Amino acid sequence: MAEFSEKGVFLCNCHGSVSKVLPMEALCQFLEQRQPGLPVVVGNNFCQPQILLRLAQEHSRQPMVVGACSQLNSKLHFWEEPERVALDPYYVRIVDLLREIASSYNNVESVERVKLLLWSQVRRQANFSGVPPQSRKLRFTRPQGEISRRDLFQLPWPKYQMIPYIQTDKCVGGGRCHLCQEECPFNAIVCENSQVLIDKLRCQGCGACIAACPFQAISYPTFSLDQLEGEMEGLLLNVGDILQPRIVALICQSCLPSFSEAKANPVSCVPNMLPLEVPCLSMVTSWLLLRAFDLGAQGVALISNTEKCQFGLKSDKWQGKVRFVQELFEQWGIEPRRIRAFEGSRLEQELTQFAQGVAQLPLTSLRSSQPTKVPAKGLPLPALIAGLAERLAPRSTGVVSAGTVPFGKLELDKSQCTACGLCALDCPTKALRFVSDKEAYQLLFHCQVCIGCGQCARICPEKCLRLENALQLDKLSSPAETILEGEIAQCRECGMPMAPRAMIDRLRTRIVAAQGLTSQLDICPACRTKAMSGVVAGAEHR
Fold first, then answer.
1. Is residue 367 in a domain?
2. What is the pTM of this model?
3. In CA terms, which of 59, 81, 106, 504 is 20 to 30 Å from 310?
Protein backbone atom coordinates (compact mmCIF):
# COMPACT_ATOMS: atom_id res chain seq x y z
CA MET A 1 0.00 0.00 0.00
CA ALA A 2 1.32 3.43 -0.93
CA GLU A 3 2.50 5.79 1.82
CA PHE A 4 1.51 9.47 1.74
CA SER A 5 2.54 12.33 3.97
CA GLU A 6 -0.73 14.30 3.74
CA LYS A 7 -4.40 13.79 3.04
CA GLY A 8 -6.33 15.67 0.40
CA VAL A 9 -9.52 16.04 -1.62
CA PHE A 10 -9.54 14.81 -5.22
CA LEU A 11 -12.15 16.03 -7.72
CA CYS A 12 -12.78 14.23 -11.01
CA ASN A 13 -13.91 16.28 -14.00
CA CYS A 14 -15.24 13.19 -15.82
CA HIS A 15 -14.16 14.38 -19.29
CA GLY A 16 -15.61 17.83 -18.69
CA SER A 17 -19.08 16.57 -17.69
CA VAL A 18 -18.74 17.93 -14.17
CA SER A 19 -17.26 21.35 -15.03
CA LYS A 20 -20.17 22.06 -17.38
CA VAL A 21 -22.39 22.37 -14.30
CA LEU A 22 -20.06 22.78 -11.33
CA PRO A 23 -17.36 25.47 -11.16
CA MET A 24 -14.37 23.38 -10.09
CA GLU A 25 -12.31 26.40 -9.06
CA ALA A 26 -15.12 27.63 -6.78
CA LEU A 27 -15.35 24.20 -5.15
CA CYS A 28 -11.61 24.21 -4.49
CA GLN A 29 -11.72 27.71 -3.00
CA PHE A 30 -14.65 26.79 -0.76
CA LEU A 31 -12.86 23.77 0.72
CA GLU A 32 -9.58 25.64 1.14
CA GLN A 33 -11.39 28.47 2.93
CA ARG A 34 -13.17 26.08 5.25
CA GLN A 35 -9.90 24.33 6.12
CA PRO A 36 -6.81 26.35 5.27
CA GLY A 37 -4.00 24.17 4.00
CA LEU A 38 -6.31 21.40 2.81
CA PRO A 39 -4.90 20.14 -0.52
CA VAL A 40 -7.51 19.96 -3.30
CA VAL A 41 -6.49 18.22 -6.53
CA VAL A 42 -8.49 18.23 -9.78
CA GLY A 43 -8.05 15.36 -12.21
CA ASN A 44 -9.91 13.33 -14.80
CA ASN A 45 -11.17 9.81 -15.45
CA PHE A 46 -10.62 8.45 -11.91
CA CYS A 47 -12.62 5.28 -12.56
CA GLN A 48 -9.98 3.99 -14.97
CA PRO A 49 -7.30 1.67 -13.53
CA GLN A 50 -4.44 3.33 -11.64
CA ILE A 51 -5.45 6.91 -12.61
CA LEU A 52 -6.33 7.96 -9.06
CA LEU A 53 -3.27 6.20 -7.65
CA ARG A 54 -0.91 7.91 -10.09
CA LEU A 55 -2.43 11.29 -9.34
CA ALA A 56 -2.13 10.67 -5.60
CA GLN A 57 1.53 9.67 -5.97
CA GLU A 58 2.25 12.67 -8.16
CA HIS A 59 0.93 15.05 -5.51
CA SER A 60 2.07 12.92 -2.54
CA ARG A 61 -1.44 12.97 -1.12
CA GLN A 62 -3.63 10.25 0.38
CA PRO A 63 -7.14 10.68 -1.05
CA MET A 64 -9.43 11.39 1.89
CA VAL A 65 -12.50 12.52 -0.05
CA VAL A 66 -12.99 11.93 -3.75
CA GLY A 67 -15.58 13.71 -5.89
CA ALA A 68 -16.19 11.29 -8.76
CA CYS A 69 -18.85 8.84 -9.97
CA SER A 70 -20.34 5.81 -8.26
CA GLN A 71 -18.28 3.41 -10.42
CA LEU A 72 -15.17 4.35 -8.48
CA ASN A 73 -16.69 3.11 -5.22
CA SER A 74 -16.97 -0.50 -6.39
CA LYS A 75 -13.47 -0.40 -7.87
CA LEU A 76 -11.89 0.85 -4.64
CA HIS A 77 -13.60 -1.83 -2.56
CA PHE A 78 -12.64 -4.64 -4.92
CA TRP A 79 -9.82 -6.71 -3.46
CA GLU A 80 -7.82 -8.92 -5.82
CA GLU A 81 -4.43 -9.49 -4.23
CA PRO A 82 -3.06 -7.85 -1.07
CA GLU A 83 0.15 -6.64 -2.76
CA ARG A 84 -1.88 -4.86 -5.44
CA VAL A 85 -3.97 -2.79 -3.02
CA ALA A 86 -2.55 0.71 -3.35
CA LEU A 87 -5.27 2.78 -1.70
CA ASP A 88 -7.09 1.63 1.41
CA PRO A 89 -10.77 2.02 0.43
CA TYR A 90 -11.84 2.65 4.03
CA TYR A 91 -9.77 5.84 4.15
CA VAL A 92 -11.60 7.22 1.12
CA ARG A 93 -15.10 8.70 1.02
CA ILE A 94 -16.73 9.25 -2.37
CA VAL A 95 -19.19 11.96 -3.35
CA ASP A 96 -21.00 11.08 -6.58
CA LEU A 97 -20.73 14.30 -8.58
CA LEU A 98 -22.39 12.84 -11.68
CA ARG A 99 -25.46 11.88 -9.68
CA GLU A 100 -25.68 15.38 -8.26
CA ILE A 101 -25.49 17.16 -11.61
CA ALA A 102 -28.01 14.70 -13.11
CA SER A 103 -30.65 15.75 -10.57
CA SER A 104 -33.26 18.39 -11.32
CA TYR A 105 -31.72 21.16 -9.22
CA ASN A 106 -30.92 24.61 -10.51
CA ASN A 107 -27.26 25.58 -10.82
CA VAL A 108 -27.11 27.41 -7.50
CA GLU A 109 -28.67 24.48 -5.61
CA SER A 110 -26.35 21.97 -7.32
CA VAL A 111 -23.23 23.93 -6.43
CA GLU A 112 -24.25 24.48 -2.80
CA ARG A 113 -25.25 20.83 -2.34
CA VAL A 114 -21.93 19.59 -3.67
CA LYS A 115 -20.07 22.01 -1.40
CA LEU A 116 -21.90 20.67 1.63
CA LEU A 117 -21.53 17.04 0.58
CA LEU A 118 -17.79 17.42 0.04
CA TRP A 119 -17.27 19.37 3.25
CA SER A 120 -19.33 16.89 5.28
CA GLN A 121 -17.11 14.04 4.11
CA VAL A 122 -13.98 16.03 5.03
CA ARG A 123 -15.42 16.55 8.51
CA ARG A 124 -16.34 12.88 8.73
CA GLN A 125 -12.92 11.59 7.75
CA ALA A 126 -11.26 13.94 10.21
CA ASN A 127 -12.73 11.63 12.89
CA PHE A 128 -11.68 8.40 11.18
CA SER A 129 -8.96 6.60 13.12
CA GLY A 130 -8.51 3.50 11.01
CA VAL A 131 -9.78 -0.07 11.09
CA PRO A 132 -8.40 -2.45 13.75
CA PRO A 133 -7.97 -6.14 12.84
CA GLN A 134 -10.79 -7.28 15.13
CA SER A 135 -13.24 -5.26 13.04
CA ARG A 136 -12.43 -6.94 9.71
CA LYS A 137 -14.47 -9.94 8.66
CA LEU A 138 -13.52 -11.89 5.57
CA ARG A 139 -16.36 -12.95 3.34
CA PHE A 140 -16.73 -14.20 -0.23
CA THR A 141 -18.78 -12.55 -2.95
CA ARG A 142 -19.17 -12.97 -6.67
CA PRO A 143 -18.29 -10.00 -8.90
CA GLN A 144 -21.09 -8.15 -10.64
CA GLY A 145 -21.31 -7.61 -14.38
CA GLU A 146 -19.12 -9.02 -17.14
CA ILE A 147 -16.06 -11.04 -16.12
CA SER A 148 -13.10 -12.39 -18.07
CA ARG A 149 -11.99 -16.02 -18.51
CA ARG A 150 -9.19 -15.43 -16.08
CA ASP A 151 -11.72 -14.19 -13.52
CA LEU A 152 -13.54 -17.52 -13.68
CA PHE A 153 -10.59 -19.27 -12.07
CA GLN A 154 -10.65 -16.89 -9.12
CA LEU A 155 -14.28 -17.19 -8.00
CA PRO A 156 -15.58 -16.52 -5.43
CA TRP A 157 -13.88 -13.22 -4.58
CA PRO A 158 -12.60 -12.65 -1.04
CA LYS A 159 -13.67 -9.32 0.39
CA TYR A 160 -13.48 -7.62 3.76
CA GLN A 161 -16.62 -6.57 5.58
CA MET A 162 -16.50 -4.14 8.47
CA ILE A 163 -18.23 -5.14 11.71
CA PRO A 164 -18.36 -3.48 15.15
CA TYR A 165 -16.09 -4.44 18.01
CA ILE A 166 -16.15 -4.00 21.79
CA GLN A 167 -13.92 -1.40 23.46
CA THR A 168 -13.28 -3.26 26.69
CA ASP A 169 -12.06 -0.17 28.54
CA LYS A 170 -15.53 1.42 28.16
CA CYS A 171 -17.67 -1.69 28.59
CA VAL A 172 -19.03 -2.37 32.09
CA GLY A 173 -18.67 -6.09 31.47
CA GLY A 174 -20.94 -9.05 31.08
CA GLY A 175 -23.58 -9.90 33.65
CA ARG A 176 -24.55 -6.30 34.21
CA CYS A 177 -26.59 -4.19 31.74
CA HIS A 178 -27.13 -6.85 28.97
CA LEU A 179 -28.48 -4.18 26.60
CA CYS A 180 -26.27 -5.02 23.63
CA GLN A 181 -26.93 -8.76 23.95
CA GLU A 182 -30.68 -8.23 24.10
CA GLU A 183 -30.66 -5.91 21.07
CA CYS A 184 -28.50 -7.99 18.72
CA PRO A 185 -30.83 -9.71 16.19
CA PHE A 186 -28.22 -12.37 15.33
CA ASN A 187 -27.16 -13.43 18.86
CA ALA A 188 -23.62 -12.39 17.93
CA ILE A 189 -22.73 -10.83 21.29
CA VAL A 190 -21.47 -13.28 23.87
CA CYS A 191 -20.06 -13.07 27.37
CA GLU A 192 -16.92 -14.98 28.27
CA ASN A 193 -15.46 -14.69 31.76
CA SER A 194 -17.41 -11.46 32.36
CA GLN A 195 -16.01 -9.97 29.14
CA VAL A 196 -18.35 -9.03 26.30
CA LEU A 197 -17.25 -10.11 22.82
CA ILE A 198 -18.68 -10.05 19.28
CA ASP A 199 -18.74 -13.35 17.42
CA LYS A 200 -17.42 -12.51 13.93
CA LEU A 201 -19.11 -15.47 12.29
CA ARG A 202 -22.56 -14.45 13.51
CA CYS A 203 -22.21 -10.68 13.26
CA GLN A 204 -23.73 -9.21 10.09
CA GLY A 205 -22.65 -5.60 10.69
CA CYS A 206 -26.11 -4.05 11.12
CA GLY A 207 -24.95 -1.87 14.02
CA ALA A 208 -28.01 -2.42 16.24
CA CYS A 209 -25.68 -2.92 19.21
CA ILE A 210 -24.28 0.58 18.68
CA ALA A 211 -27.67 2.10 19.43
CA ALA A 212 -28.16 -0.12 22.49
CA CYS A 213 -24.92 0.71 24.30
CA PRO A 214 -25.24 3.88 26.41
CA PHE A 215 -21.51 3.92 27.14
CA GLN A 216 -20.43 4.09 23.46
CA ALA A 217 -18.34 1.02 24.21
CA ILE A 218 -19.10 -0.55 20.83
CA SER A 219 -17.24 0.97 17.92
CA TYR A 220 -18.01 0.71 14.21
CA PRO A 221 -14.76 1.94 12.60
CA THR A 222 -16.32 3.14 9.35
CA PHE A 223 -19.51 4.40 10.99
CA SER A 224 -18.46 5.68 14.39
CA LEU A 225 -20.72 8.18 16.15
CA ASP A 226 -17.92 10.75 15.95
CA GLN A 227 -17.79 10.30 12.17
CA LEU A 228 -21.55 10.59 11.80
CA GLU A 229 -21.61 13.69 14.00
CA GLY A 230 -18.83 15.26 11.94
CA GLU A 231 -20.71 14.52 8.74
CA MET A 232 -23.87 16.09 10.15
CA GLU A 233 -21.95 19.20 11.14
CA GLY A 234 -20.78 19.51 7.54
CA LEU A 235 -24.25 18.97 6.07
CA LEU A 236 -25.73 21.57 8.41
CA LEU A 237 -23.08 24.21 7.81
CA ASN A 238 -24.80 27.59 7.82
CA VAL A 239 -24.18 29.11 4.38
CA GLY A 240 -27.04 31.61 4.36
CA ASP A 241 -30.55 31.10 3.04
CA ILE A 242 -29.67 28.55 0.37
CA LEU A 243 -30.97 25.00 0.81
CA GLN A 244 -33.18 25.97 3.73
CA PRO A 245 -34.81 24.62 5.79
CA ARG A 246 -32.11 21.99 6.08
CA ILE A 247 -33.31 18.38 6.38
CA VAL A 248 -31.03 15.42 7.21
CA ALA A 249 -32.02 12.15 5.55
CA LEU A 250 -30.68 9.08 7.37
CA ILE A 251 -30.57 6.40 4.68
CA CYS A 252 -30.29 2.65 5.21
CA GLN A 253 -27.62 1.34 2.84
CA SER A 254 -28.72 -2.25 3.05
CA CYS A 255 -32.38 -1.49 2.31
CA LEU A 256 -31.77 0.73 -0.69
CA PRO A 257 -28.84 -0.45 -2.80
CA SER A 258 -30.47 1.22 -5.82
CA PHE A 259 -29.61 4.61 -4.32
CA SER A 260 -26.46 4.52 -6.42
CA GLU A 261 -28.67 5.27 -9.41
CA ALA A 262 -29.80 8.88 -9.68
CA LYS A 263 -33.28 8.07 -10.99
CA ALA A 264 -33.95 5.63 -8.15
CA ASN A 265 -32.80 7.98 -5.42
CA PRO A 266 -35.87 9.49 -3.74
CA VAL A 267 -33.72 11.96 -1.77
CA SER A 268 -32.89 13.64 -5.07
CA CYS A 269 -36.42 15.02 -5.23
CA VAL A 270 -35.70 17.70 -2.59
CA PRO A 271 -32.54 19.83 -2.87
CA ASN A 272 -32.48 20.79 0.82
CA MET A 273 -32.70 17.14 1.93
CA LEU A 274 -29.12 15.97 2.43
CA PRO A 275 -28.23 12.27 2.77
CA LEU A 276 -26.34 10.60 5.59
CA GLU A 277 -25.90 6.88 5.02
CA VAL A 278 -25.73 4.21 7.73
CA PRO A 279 -25.45 0.41 7.39
CA CYS A 280 -28.95 -0.01 8.83
CA LEU A 281 -31.40 2.31 10.57
CA SER A 282 -31.25 -0.03 13.57
CA MET A 283 -27.96 1.65 14.53
CA VAL A 284 -29.52 5.13 14.64
CA THR A 285 -29.59 6.34 18.24
CA SER A 286 -31.83 8.83 20.01
CA TRP A 287 -28.66 10.83 20.57
CA LEU A 288 -28.00 11.04 16.81
CA LEU A 289 -31.56 12.18 16.08
CA LEU A 290 -31.44 14.88 18.74
CA ARG A 291 -27.95 15.95 17.77
CA ALA A 292 -29.13 16.69 14.24
CA PHE A 293 -31.61 19.26 15.56
CA ASP A 294 -29.05 20.53 18.07
CA LEU A 295 -26.74 21.30 15.12
CA GLY A 296 -29.47 23.22 13.28
CA ALA A 297 -31.51 20.69 11.27
CA GLN A 298 -35.16 21.64 10.83
CA GLY A 299 -36.24 18.12 9.93
CA VAL A 300 -34.97 14.54 9.99
CA ALA A 301 -36.18 11.72 7.73
CA LEU A 302 -35.30 8.05 8.28
CA ILE A 303 -35.51 6.22 4.96
CA SER A 304 -35.60 2.47 4.46
CA ASN A 305 -37.34 -0.34 2.65
CA THR A 306 -37.65 -3.38 4.88
CA GLU A 307 -38.49 -5.58 1.90
CA LYS A 308 -34.93 -5.04 0.63
CA CYS A 309 -33.20 -5.07 4.00
CA GLN A 310 -30.35 -7.59 3.85
CA PHE A 311 -30.56 -7.97 7.62
CA GLY A 312 -34.28 -8.74 7.60
CA LEU A 313 -34.98 -6.22 10.37
CA LYS A 314 -38.34 -4.54 10.93
CA SER A 315 -38.94 -0.84 11.36
CA ASP A 316 -39.88 -1.17 15.04
CA LYS A 317 -36.11 -1.20 15.69
CA TRP A 318 -36.00 2.54 14.94
CA GLN A 319 -39.66 3.62 15.08
CA GLY A 320 -39.51 3.46 18.88
CA LYS A 321 -36.65 5.97 18.95
CA VAL A 322 -38.59 8.26 16.62
CA ARG A 323 -41.62 8.18 18.95
CA PHE A 324 -39.41 8.94 21.96
CA VAL A 325 -37.93 12.02 20.26
CA GLN A 326 -41.36 13.13 19.04
CA GLU A 327 -42.84 13.07 22.54
CA LEU A 328 -39.77 14.85 23.86
CA PHE A 329 -40.37 17.55 21.24
CA GLU A 330 -43.96 17.91 22.37
CA GLN A 331 -42.74 18.60 25.89
CA TRP A 332 -40.45 21.30 24.52
CA GLY A 333 -42.99 22.92 22.22
CA ILE A 334 -41.37 21.65 19.00
CA GLU A 335 -43.53 20.17 16.27
CA PRO A 336 -43.12 16.36 16.41
CA ARG A 337 -43.81 16.08 12.67
CA ARG A 338 -40.32 17.41 12.03
CA ILE A 339 -39.05 13.84 12.35
CA ARG A 340 -40.53 10.84 10.59
CA ALA A 341 -39.59 7.38 9.34
CA PHE A 342 -40.38 6.44 5.72
CA GLU A 343 -40.52 3.11 3.95
CA GLY A 344 -42.30 1.70 0.92
CA SER A 345 -42.72 2.39 -2.78
CA ARG A 346 -44.03 6.00 -2.70
CA LEU A 347 -40.94 7.50 -1.11
CA GLU A 348 -40.43 10.33 -3.58
CA GLN A 349 -43.96 11.65 -3.16
CA GLU A 350 -43.97 11.25 0.63
CA LEU A 351 -40.56 12.87 1.06
CA THR A 352 -41.61 15.83 -1.08
CA GLN A 353 -44.71 16.31 1.07
CA PHE A 354 -42.62 15.98 4.22
CA ALA A 355 -40.16 18.63 3.04
CA GLN A 356 -43.01 20.97 2.11
CA GLY A 357 -44.51 20.49 5.56
CA VAL A 358 -41.21 21.28 7.27
CA ALA A 359 -40.83 24.40 5.12
CA GLN A 360 -44.14 25.73 6.45
CA LEU A 361 -42.99 25.47 10.07
CA PRO A 362 -41.14 28.29 11.84
CA LEU A 363 -37.41 27.78 12.30
CA THR A 364 -36.46 26.27 15.62
CA SER A 365 -34.47 28.47 17.96
CA LEU A 366 -31.70 25.87 17.98
CA ARG A 367 -30.49 27.03 14.57
CA SER A 368 -29.39 30.40 15.93
CA SER A 369 -27.68 29.13 19.10
CA GLN A 370 -24.49 27.27 19.84
CA PRO A 371 -24.73 23.46 19.92
CA THR A 372 -24.73 21.73 23.27
CA LYS A 373 -21.29 20.90 24.64
CA VAL A 374 -21.30 17.22 25.47
CA PRO A 375 -18.60 16.19 27.98
CA ALA A 376 -16.02 13.67 26.81
CA LYS A 377 -16.68 11.46 29.84
CA GLY A 378 -19.97 10.18 31.15
CA LEU A 379 -23.21 9.38 29.36
CA PRO A 380 -23.66 11.67 26.32
CA LEU A 381 -27.46 11.40 25.91
CA PRO A 382 -28.50 12.85 29.31
CA ALA A 383 -26.04 15.72 28.83
CA LEU A 384 -27.45 16.47 25.37
CA ILE A 385 -31.08 16.36 26.52
CA ALA A 386 -30.29 18.56 29.53
CA GLY A 387 -28.56 21.08 27.25
CA LEU A 388 -31.46 21.12 24.80
CA ALA A 389 -34.00 21.46 27.61
CA GLU A 390 -32.13 24.42 29.06
CA ARG A 391 -32.35 26.24 25.72
CA LEU A 392 -35.89 25.24 24.81
CA ALA A 393 -37.94 24.64 27.95
CA PRO A 394 -35.91 24.94 31.15
CA ARG A 395 -38.99 24.42 33.36
CA SER A 396 -40.24 21.23 31.72
CA THR A 397 -41.93 18.98 34.26
CA GLY A 398 -43.46 16.29 32.05
CA VAL A 399 -42.71 12.60 31.78
CA VAL A 400 -41.70 11.03 28.45
CA SER A 401 -42.74 7.40 28.21
CA ALA A 402 -43.52 6.80 24.51
CA GLY A 403 -41.40 4.63 22.26
CA THR A 404 -37.98 3.32 23.19
CA VAL A 405 -37.04 5.34 26.27
CA PRO A 406 -33.39 4.87 27.33
CA PHE A 407 -34.08 6.09 30.87
CA GLY A 408 -35.67 4.56 33.96
CA LYS A 409 -38.19 5.69 36.55
CA LEU A 410 -37.78 3.69 39.74
CA GLU A 411 -40.42 2.81 42.32
CA LEU A 412 -39.53 1.12 45.61
CA ASP A 413 -41.84 -0.67 48.02
CA LYS A 414 -40.20 0.46 51.25
CA SER A 415 -42.25 -1.95 53.34
CA GLN A 416 -40.59 -4.91 51.61
CA CYS A 417 -37.04 -3.60 51.15
CA THR A 418 -34.37 -4.96 53.50
CA ALA A 419 -31.68 -2.48 52.38
CA CYS A 420 -29.37 -5.30 51.29
CA GLY A 421 -27.79 -3.02 48.64
CA LEU A 422 -27.55 -5.66 45.92
CA CYS A 423 -29.41 -3.40 43.47
CA ALA A 424 -26.78 -0.69 43.87
CA LEU A 425 -23.94 -3.21 43.72
CA ASP A 426 -25.07 -4.41 40.28
CA CYS A 427 -26.11 -1.04 38.81
CA PRO A 428 -23.85 -0.53 35.74
CA THR A 429 -24.04 3.29 35.79
CA LYS A 430 -24.14 3.84 39.58
CA ALA A 431 -27.59 5.39 39.19
CA LEU A 432 -28.31 3.51 42.42
CA ARG A 433 -25.87 4.00 45.30
CA PHE A 434 -25.95 2.56 48.80
CA VAL A 435 -24.13 4.72 51.35
CA SER A 436 -23.85 4.04 55.04
CA ASP A 437 -21.91 4.78 58.21
CA LYS A 438 -22.02 3.23 61.67
CA GLU A 439 -25.42 4.66 62.47
CA ALA A 440 -27.50 5.07 59.29
CA TYR A 441 -27.80 4.19 55.61
CA GLN A 442 -29.28 5.73 52.46
CA LEU A 443 -30.25 4.31 49.07
CA LEU A 444 -29.80 7.05 46.46
CA PHE A 445 -31.24 7.11 42.95
CA HIS A 446 -29.96 9.43 40.22
CA CYS A 447 -32.43 9.24 37.32
CA GLN A 448 -30.15 11.24 35.02
CA VAL A 449 -27.75 8.33 34.67
CA CYS A 450 -30.30 5.52 34.78
CA ILE A 451 -30.30 3.71 31.42
CA GLY A 452 -33.40 1.64 32.12
CA CYS A 453 -31.60 -1.70 31.82
CA GLY A 454 -33.68 -3.25 34.63
CA GLN A 455 -30.73 -5.00 36.25
CA CYS A 456 -31.71 -3.67 39.68
CA ALA A 457 -35.22 -5.12 39.47
CA ARG A 458 -33.90 -8.47 38.26
CA ILE A 459 -31.34 -8.82 41.04
CA CYS A 460 -33.59 -7.66 43.92
CA PRO A 461 -34.21 -10.71 46.19
CA GLU A 462 -37.37 -9.15 47.68
CA LYS A 463 -38.80 -8.11 44.29
CA CYS A 464 -39.68 -4.75 45.76
CA LEU A 465 -38.21 -2.67 42.91
CA ARG A 466 -40.27 -1.69 39.87
CA LEU A 467 -38.61 0.01 36.90
CA GLU A 468 -40.57 1.85 34.22
CA ASN A 469 -38.86 3.10 31.08
CA ALA A 470 -39.62 6.79 31.37
CA LEU A 471 -37.78 10.12 31.43
CA GLN A 472 -38.71 12.61 34.18
CA LEU A 473 -37.72 15.96 32.72
CA ASP A 474 -37.93 17.89 36.00
CA LYS A 475 -35.39 15.54 37.60
CA LEU A 476 -32.96 15.37 34.70
CA SER A 477 -30.58 17.97 36.16
CA SER A 478 -31.41 17.32 39.81
CA PRO A 479 -29.05 15.67 42.29
CA ALA A 480 -29.64 12.10 43.40
CA GLU A 481 -32.74 11.61 45.53
CA THR A 482 -33.00 9.47 48.64
CA ILE A 483 -35.51 6.69 48.03
CA LEU A 484 -34.80 4.77 51.24
CA GLU A 485 -33.10 5.53 54.54
CA GLY A 486 -32.91 4.00 57.97
CA GLU A 487 -30.70 3.14 60.88
CA ILE A 488 -27.97 0.58 61.24
CA ALA A 489 -28.73 -1.93 64.00
CA GLN A 490 -26.09 -2.16 66.71
CA CYS A 491 -25.16 -5.11 68.86
CA ARG A 492 -26.98 -4.82 72.20
CA GLU A 493 -23.90 -6.16 73.97
CA CYS A 494 -20.92 -4.43 72.43
CA GLY A 495 -22.55 -1.67 70.38
CA MET A 496 -20.84 -2.66 67.15
CA PRO A 497 -22.79 -1.85 63.91
CA MET A 498 -24.24 -4.97 62.31
CA ALA A 499 -26.74 -4.52 59.47
CA PRO A 500 -29.64 -2.32 58.39
CA ARG A 501 -32.46 -2.42 60.93
CA ALA A 502 -34.93 -3.23 58.13
CA MET A 503 -33.01 -6.41 57.28
CA ILE A 504 -32.95 -7.62 60.88
CA ASP A 505 -36.64 -6.84 61.35
CA ARG A 506 -37.48 -8.79 58.19
CA LEU A 507 -35.47 -11.79 59.44
CA ARG A 508 -37.29 -11.57 62.77
CA THR A 509 -40.68 -11.90 61.09
CA ARG A 510 -39.55 -14.91 59.05
CA ILE A 511 -38.04 -16.96 61.83
CA VAL A 512 -40.37 -19.28 63.66
CA ALA A 513 -40.77 -18.01 67.20
CA ALA A 514 -38.65 -20.06 69.56
CA GLN A 515 -37.23 -19.38 72.98
CA GLY A 516 -34.06 -17.36 72.66
CA LEU A 517 -33.90 -17.72 68.85
CA THR A 518 -35.00 -14.29 67.64
CA SER A 519 -33.09 -12.61 70.45
CA GLN A 520 -29.88 -13.78 68.82
CA LEU A 521 -30.53 -11.34 65.95
CA ASP A 522 -29.72 -8.41 68.22
CA ILE A 523 -26.13 -9.40 68.95
CA CYS A 524 -23.14 -9.58 66.62
CA PRO A 525 -21.48 -12.89 65.66
CA ALA A 526 -18.54 -12.29 67.99
CA CYS A 527 -20.74 -11.72 71.02
CA ARG A 528 -22.94 -14.66 70.03
CA THR A 529 -19.89 -16.94 69.92
CA LYS A 530 -18.71 -15.79 73.31
CA ALA A 531 -22.15 -16.27 74.79
CA MET A 532 -22.31 -19.83 73.47
CA SER A 533 -18.84 -20.60 74.88
CA GLY A 534 -19.73 -19.35 78.36
CA VAL A 535 -17.74 -16.12 78.19
CA VAL A 536 -19.55 -12.99 79.34
CA ALA A 537 -20.85 -11.40 76.13
CA GLY A 538 -19.06 -8.27 75.18
CA ALA A 539 -16.78 -8.08 78.23
CA GLU A 540 -13.60 -7.60 76.22
CA HIS A 541 -15.22 -4.87 74.14
CA ARG A 542 -15.85 -2.85 77.27
1. no
2. 0.88
3. 81
